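Table S5 (text form). Sequence records supplied for joint modeling of the two-component complex.
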Amino acid sequence: MYKYDNYDQEMVDTRVAEFRDQTRRRLEGKMTEDQFKPLRLQNGLYLQLHAYMLRVAVPYGTLNSTQMHALADIADKYDRGYGHFTTRQNIQYNWIKLEEAPDLLADLAKVEMHAIQTSGNCIRNISSDQYAGAAADELVDPRPYAELLRQWSSFHPEFLHLPRKFKICVIASDTDRAAMRLHDIGIQIVKNDAGEIGCAFYVGGGMGRTPMIAPLIREFVPLDQLITYSEACLRVYNRYGRRDNKYKARIKILVHEMGKDEYARQVEEEFAHLLEQGIEPPLAELERIKTYFQDPEFKTGLTDKADRSDENFARWVDSNCMPHKTPGYVAVTISLKPVGGIPGDASTEQMHVMADLAKEYSFDECRVTHAQNIVLPHVEIGRLNELYGKLAEAGLATANIDHIGDIIACPGLDYCSLANARSIPVAQKISQRFAENGKGETLGQLKLKISGCINACGHHHAGHIGILGVDKKGTENYQLLLGGSEAEDTSLAKITGPGFDEAGIVDAVEKAADVYLAQREDGERFLDTYRRIGMDPFKEALYA
Amino acid sequence: MKILTGNDLLTGLVTWWDGQGWSPHVDDAVDVGDEAETILAREEAARRVNASYAIEATRDEAGKVRPAHIKDRVRALGPTVRPDLTLKPAEPEALNWVI
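The corresponding C-alpha cell record, covering 643 residues in total, follows.
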C-alpha cells in the first residue's frame, strides 16, 4: 500500500503543529468559537451531541496492521475504548477532548494518517471497492488512481471552498461494490474498443435530501488525462454551483438544473483549455504510485477447499468470503454487525485482533467497507478454518454479509446533532427479530439501510429496504422505503406510505419480508421480486 | 421553564447552567426566565461553555428536570444504545425517561 514520501509527511506534521497552535489560542481566549470552528472542522473535529467527535480519513478504506493497531490505541487513550467505522470508509471517535486533539492527530501522523478534509466544503476522502486488488472481476486495481486523485485533491487551493462537500469514488469492475453512481463524481476504470485503459465519468450523483443517480458524462477519458478531466468537472461546478442555498449547492443539483448535456459541454470546453495548460502529472507519477500497490507474493499450488464439516463455519464461508483473482485465496469480510450489536462499532480489543489477523493472514492489509465492515483481502482458503476460530473468539464471526442483519446505520440521534431520530436501536431490534424468527438466512441477499435524518448518512435511499427517521411533533417516526440499490443496478428507494413508531417499523420490515417470501420466484432476491411485483402488494400488507 | 445547556469547551461534555456555574446533571438546571441571552453571552465569553443555547423544560414535584425535546434528553443522559456510557450506568430504566 501507499507509503508517505517526505512531502506527505511534512505536510501532515506541519498541519498538526498548526492545529496545536490554533487550539492553544482558542483555549487561551485569543480566538472565538466562530473563528475556531472552521479550523477545527478542517481537521475533522466536530462538536456532536455528547462531546467532540473526530473523523479520521482512511484513504479508499485501506489500512495496514500498524495503522489498525494505532486506531485501537487511540480509542483506548483518547476515547472510551471503541471506534465507529462509517459509510465513507472512515472511522469516527465520539468522546474526544479538545485539549487532547492535537496529541491525537500527532499520534495519527506517526502512522501516516490524518483527519484533514474529512469535513467542510472540499473534496473528501476518495472511496473505492473494498476488494480492490483482490476481486476476481476487476479490470485493474483502482487504488493507484484513487491515490493519484487523493494527492491532487489534498490541499488543492482552488477546491478548498467549494459550494458544498464533494465525494469521489473509483472502481474498476462492472460490479459496483462502492455505490459509485451515488457520488458527486463516480469513476469507473474501463477498457475501450481499442483495448486501452481509461475512465468513464459519472457526475452528479448523491443521496441526502435530493437523491440522484449520476449520469454518464464521458464514456472514456484516457488515463493520462484523468486529473485534467477531474479538474474540469470541478471547475465548472465551482463556477456555477449554487452558493445561495446550501440545500441546492451539491453538484447533483447543478447537473440536474443545467442538464447533463450542457454540463458535459462546459466540462469539455474547460477540459480543452486545461489540456493546453499542461496540468496533468506525468504518467511516471502514476507508475511510481502503482509500485506501492503491487500484488503481494501469492503462493501457488494452494488448496481451493476448506473443511466444511462445521455447519457454522460453512455458513460463514458462504456468506462472508468473496472469490479472489488468485487461485487458493478468498477475500474475507469481517462483519461488524453481531445480532443486536451497534453497526460499525468495534472495541479497542477487536481492532487489535483484526490488526493481528490482517498481519497473520492477509499480507498485513485490511479494508474498511462502505457497509461498515472490515475486509481481509487476501486469505488462503486452506487457513480459513483457523481464521474463523480466531474471529469467533473475538465475537467477530457473524455470518450475515449482505443479509438482513448486515444493516448499515448512521449514528442517529444517539450521537449526531443533525439527527431527528435514533437509528441504532432500530437496527438492533430488526437484527434481533430476524435472528429470533429464523428468517434472516432464508431471505438471502437483503440490504437494509437506516438513516436518522434526511442527510442520508445511512444510505436509506439505496437500501433494498430503507428506513428514514423523522421528527413527528417531537417524537421519533420512521418512514419505510423499498427498492433502492447502490450496486451496478443503481436505483432509488420509494416511500411506502405513512411512517411507523419504533416498534411499528420493526413489524413493518417483517411484513415486507413476508411479502417477498410469499411471492418470490426461483433465484429472485428481495429487490428482484419488488421490481417484478411493484409496491402495491407490499402496501397492502403494511397498511391493511 | 427555560434552562441553559451547552458543551464544556475543554472536554466537549454536556453541561447545564445551575445558577452559579455548569453542572453535568440536568436536574441541577435552573429556570433562567428572561436572562438566557445575558448569561450565555457572559459564559461563552469567559470560555466556561461552548455552543450553548436555551431550551424549554419541565420540573416535576420530585425536582426532576425533563427537557422538552428528545434530543436534549439524549444529551442529558447519554447514548441510549450504550447504557454503560450514560450518566446512570447502574439504572437501565433511565433509558425509558429519554423516550
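Note: The longest helix of chain B spans residues 36-45.
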